[in-house]
Amino acid sequence: MIGNKWDDILKSEFESEYFIKLNGFLAEEYKNKIIYPKKENIYNALKLTPPDKVRIVILGQDPYINPGEAHGLAFSMGEGIKIPPSLKNIYKELNADLGVDIPKTGNLVSWAEQGVLLLNTVLTVEAGKSNSHAKKGWEKFTDHIIKYLGEKNNPIVFILWGKNAQSKEQLITNPKHLILKAPHPSPLSASTGFFGCGHFSRANKFLSENGLEAIDWGSVDKNK
Asked: Given 7, 62, 143, 221, which residue is catalytic?
């Protein structure tokens, strides 16, 4: 289904009763409504960042709800689409933290390819209706992913922005990992502690201290 080692790790989930029920729900939703992202993009985060390549996890809530935006990566969006406020604020913090030029695109594939798992806790949504696919089974599925990574022995940085992401902290049980928490980058909360959190530099410092290659956060606009 995914095409890498995630298939083995998630085999029991794919075969479980709740996931079969979730698939039935999604089949009807895609048939009768406009659902984001496209079916083929639902698992992009896992396809682009195999389990053995994960160095950083950034948790989002659910996909963007407008046309052309969602493509299976948390906070990321398709090319040529207007960058939404939360991602603009992420870029502002990146610029303030590391001096990286503010990217002109919202497509974060280059981060995913370097080992940044951009995982939403719910992987699909009905057009125009945030959280419309919450509590349908996706949370159990993504909790399994977070728990698996949270138990691993190789050091990983977990970046938890906002209360939804921070509710998953209990799944991250290995003390070798670094957990970074801040308010959500939404305009409603960014000024209450997201700006100035320094998560990009702190994550890279932790990776370097553990003998791992730092993330080139400024890679977004390269090769465009």
From this structure: 62
